[in-house]
Amino acid sequence: MSAQTFFIGFFGLAAVWFGIVVFRTFSMVRSALALLFSQTALGAMFLSMQAEFLGVLQIMMMATEMSIMAIFMVMFMMDPGGLGEMDMTHQKRLSLSAGIVSFVAAVAVAVFVDWGPVAHTAPDAAQQTVDLGLELLGRSMLIFETAGVTILTAMIAATAVAIQPATWRSKHEH
Amino acid sequence: MSIDLLLALITGAALFGVGIYGALSQTNLVMIMMGVELMLAGAMVNLVAFWRYLHPDTPAGQMFVLIVMTVMAIEMAVGFGVAIARFRAKGSVEMEEAVELKG
Description:
The structure holds two protein chains of two kinds. Chain A is mainly alpha-helical. Chain A is about 75% helix and about 0% strand. The radius of gyration of chain A is 21 Å and the shape is extended. Chain A starts with a helix and ends with a helix. Chain B is mostly helical. Chain B has one domain (about 5-100): Helix Hairpins. Chain B has three helices and no strands. In chain B, α1 runs antiparallel to α2 and α2 (about 30-55) packs antiparallel against α3. The model of chain B has no long low-confidence stretch (mean pLDDT about 90). At the A-B interface, α1, α2, α3, α4 and α5 of A face α1, α2 and α3 of B.
């Protein structure tokens, strides 16, 4: 077994384990941190698969995203530390069945489909970044620009939804 | 088939399964969003694995991963916007209490 295989398996296992921990702990802050570790393990897995740019991007994005999520958890929850051990689940059996069925189906597809010849080498990190940059600003420019505009729209929409409506404010101030 | 590709696909499948369990079983809006994030992460692992082991010379494969990351960021932004609005209106983000959304 090569070192690459070992690290892909190790970080994959870590990502799945921390993903399970997200829904096993009563503490919301721990849930957010477990998700952060899961996503960081995925970033490390990308690095093991020689996708250097995506690995670093994943770790950077998820570190900030999950930190913000932890702050929101503390803001919104009655018991963010989980000391009261509140059960916040429903339809557990259905959810578990759906999760297991989708996992088994996806693994069956992974195992039984003939994926064709496997490439043993990938372009080096510098070449990958150059290729991706040319792709983003060339053939896929419209898609890339659309993604940027969509994020901007989502930010404006989220802010518009989150601010207090003027009618609500005036009703509560007087 | 390469063992590395298989490992990556199994990881993606497991993350997707855990994500579906979380999205369906949790009653808190933020926890449901965490489930959706895990499902998207599962899809992302598959995309990286397909790019690396099947088409490493096609940078469009990496671009798909960037699109999924964009979707994750948008999901978070809109989800938290809705969560803040809900918290302001009802004082809670428990979806069990959102009975007015029932058809």
